Amino acid sequence: MKNKFLLLPLLLVAQNSIAAVSLDRTRAIVEGDSTPVIINIENQSDTLPYLAQAWIDDKDGNKITTGPLIATPLVQRLEPNIKSMIRISTTDVSKLPKDRESIYYFNLREIPPKSDKPNVMQVALQSRIKLFYRPEPILDKAKTDWALDLELNTVNDGYIIKNTSPFYLTVIGLAGDKNKSENGAFDSFMIDPFGSHQVKSTHFQKPYLTYINDYGGRPTVSFNCKSSVCKADSQQ
């Protein structure tokens, strides 16, 4: 009985830990030295104002403050049911690779107002999305069916996926038919530009690979295998 009373506060926290401040996307891409990327945010609370704190981390999780990408404003107040925006701009990108993407992470933390009630636990929830810098020389490549250049090599306990593109590839499915690739259980992972990743899997007569594109969509690539090498032959 004692354990039930201990669990009750935790359940109440879990039920109320729903982000009030939402983002309009799951990833963002800054293209070359183009105009800033605008991320729309909204306070979905009907009653409470929130502070929204924004910042950018590098791929190792270190907070960056001077560039090459910056988020502004760093902090803003959102009244109930009010929309606003955050601007992602470039500073000096000259030192970033020009033949491939660079990855960062955009963070948004919502800070609730201080409660006037005693013994109230307040949770500052945080959203985190991938933020890519895509240099000018590869912008045209991004408009092509570049995923058709992907390659699978069979190994004893699965496949080595070769990402021959200059883009980060987030794989969310691999199976022997399109439906299972798109909807089956799978531990997703991300492959660096021009990188590879070995995944444990049964071998399929015709493999299907599903990934996340620029818009959050989930295209599926089918492969034709000869010997130990599988080449992409179509994308849906």
From TrEMBL:
PROSITE patterns: PILI_CHAPERONE. Coiled coil: none annotated. It is found in: Periplasm. Residues 161-218 form the Pili assembly chaperone C-terminal domain. Residues 21-137 form the Pili assembly chaperone N-terminal domain. One of its GO terms (cellular component) is outer membrane-bounded periplasmic space. GO terms for biological process: cell wall organization. Residues 1-19 form the signal peptide. The keyword Chaperone applies. Its main location: periplasm. SUPFAM superfamilies: PapD-like, Periplasmic chaperone C-domain. InterPro entries: Ig-like_fold, PapD-like_sf, Periplasmic_pilus_chap, Pili_assmbl_chap_C_dom_sf, Pili_assmbl_chaperone_bac, Pili_assmbl_chaperone_C, Pili_assmbl_chaperone_CS, Pili_assmbl_chaperone_N. Keywords: Chaperone, Fimbrium biogenesis, Immunoglobulin domain, Periplasm, Signal. It holds the Pfam family PapD_N. The keyword Nucleotide-binding does not apply. Belongs to the periplasmic pilus chaperone family. This is Fimbria/pilus periplasmic chaperone. It comes from Providencia huashanensis.
